[in-house]
Every structure is written in structure tokens, then in C-alpha cells.
Design a protein that fits this description.
The protein has a single domain, classed as FAD/NAD(P)-binding domain (3-Layer(bba) Sandwich), CATH 3.50.50.60. It is globular. By secondary structure, the chain is an alpha/beta fold. Strands 1, 2, 6, 7, 8, 9, 10 and 11 form an eight-stranded mixed beta sheet that branches. Strands 3-5-4 form a three-stranded antiparallel beta sheet. The chain is about 40% helix and about 25% strand. It starts with a helix and ends with a helix. The structure holds flavin-adenine dinucleotide. Flavin-adenine dinucleotide binds next to α2, β2, β7 and α8.
Length: about 260
Amino acid sequence: MALNDVVISRHIIEEYKKKFMDHLSVDVALVGAGPANMVAGYYLAKAGVKAAIFEAKLAPGGGMWGGGMMFNEIVIQDDAKEVLDELEIRCKDKGDGYYTADSIETMATIISKCLRAGTPVFNLIKAVDVLFREENGKPRVAGLVLSWSPVEKLELHVDPLGIEAKVVVDGTGHPADICHIVTRKMNVRLNTPTGGVVGEMPLWADKGEKFTVENTARVFPGLYVSGMAATNAFGGPRMGPIFGGMLLSGRKVAKLIAQELKRP
Ligand SMILES: Cc1cc2nc3c(=O)[nH]c(=O)nc-3n(C[C@H](O)[C@H](O)[C@H](O)COP(=O)(O)OP(=O)(O)OC[C@H]3O[C@@H](n4cnc5c(N)ncnc54)[C@H](O)[C@@H]3O)c2cc1C
């Protein structure tokens, strides 16, 4: 068969267009394809919730690829072992409740499981703003405003596009981008101790890991936080190269949202 370059282009454009059009209106729009939101995407799909993940960078996976200080191994504590097992991620038992896993295999598996469960990732797309609506006279986050990342980077004067979502999840990691946008532009208070993004404290793995999971929560009508964005929003200790908290945060946010949307 002789390959036709135009046919190749047509197939790409047709399929991408279909995929994007099918996700202009979703139950859940997850911002950031780090480990927390990728795990959330897996569990949301399993619960029958229509979700999509928008990632500003080329590759999904956020900060998990590099392990600790670029040694590409991660540590997972025993609380999160059942997530590893559910996702069929291989790990080594190091005793005393510590497990290690290859960071690349772990992230590649999470990405594959999330996609195959039914939650797609749209990469190279940055959430630059939120849709804001009123419900019974009260403000809520009702979707995202999206732009191609290169457009943002080059500061081109091109208008972004909007998508609607019943729920948005800020999984943008350390920056907690969406929480900042909501407080700055909607002039509202989040459900955090200061009403805004409190900011991270120094490293303390034992406290930080539990803190992230406990504070994975709804911070405003229509807006949840997961992973490091939850830590930053509520003011917990920053994380190190132990990732159980990120996985458990993803599972928890999916469960909370499925409950809010009344899915099993
Ligand atoms: C590139 C990178 C490398 C890191 N390397 C390490 C490391 O080697 N060791 C370590 O311990 N920690 C590292 N970190 C810290 C990291 O925050 C945590 O390790 C952990 O991955 C946090 O998980 P998370 O799911 O909260 O989000 P993250 O893994 O931080 O992922 C957040 C994702 O959100 C995307 N994003 C942010 N803003 C937007 C937006 N507005 N629209 C769309 N997408 C957006 C980012 O591109 C990123 O992929 C790194 C973080 C990043 C982003």
C-alpha cells in the first residue's frame, strides 16, 4: 500500500476533533496530569463519571518520572499499597511498611490504566481561567477556559476556548493554579484556613503525606483540590519522593466527586 500524507493528516484531525468535541461538556475536568489526577481519572472512569484531563506540558505524569533527586525510584508507604495492587504496579517490599517502585514503570502504568478506563488526557493545553456561573444566586466554578500551551508561552493574542464541567479538580501541583485564579478573579473565599491558598511548609514526609490526603477536598462550589495543590491550598508540608499520598489523594477526590454526582 502506498501511504498518502493527506490521508494521514485527515485521520489525525478527524479523530482528535471527535475526541475533543466529545469532551466539551464533561462531569469532571481535571487540570494537570500528575499522579494524583491520573489516579483520579482512573477511579472516576471506573465509577461511570465522564472526565477529561488537561495537561499544559507535552508529557502527562507531572513530577513522578524523576523519582527522588533524579534517582528514578519512588517510595510508597503501606497505606497506598492497595492502589498499587489495583493498578497492577510492580513494587518491592522493603519491610516496615515501605515499598519501592520504578518511577517510570509506575507512571506509565497509571497513565495507561487511566486512558484505558476511559478518561482521556489532552496534552499541550493549559487551563488559563475558569467558567464562572451563578446557581441560586451563589457563584460556582462551572468549567475551564483552555488555550494551547505554546500560545500562552509565546504570548500570542489568540482567544482561548471554554468547556463546561460540573466539577473542576485543581491537580496542578505546587502552583495550585486554579485556586489562585478563582480567588484572584472571582473575589471569593476558598474553604481553607485563610480563604486563599495558604502556601506550603518545609518537608516533613510523615505529616505531609497524611495532610495531603486529609485535605483533598472541595474548596469551593464546583472546585476540588488534589495532590500537591491540596497541600499548598491548605498549608501543609511539601512532599518528598514518597508518592503514596498522591495516589491516595487521587482515589479520594474521585470518591468524593462520585458521591457529589451520585454515582456509585
Ligand atoms: C516537572 C516536575 C518535576 C518534578 N520532579 C520531582 C522530583 O523529581 N521529585 C519529587 O519529589 N518531586 C518532583 N516534583 C514535585 C511534584 O509536585 C510531586 O513530586 C508530585 O508529582 C505531585 O503530584 P501532583 O499529582 O500533585 O502534581 P504534579 O506531579 O506536580 O503535576 C501537576 C501537573 O499539572 C500541570 N499543570 C500545572 N498548571 C497547569 C495548568 N494551568 N493547566 C494544565 N496543566 C497544568 C503541570 O504541567 C504538571 O504536569 C516535580 C514536579 C513537576 C511539575
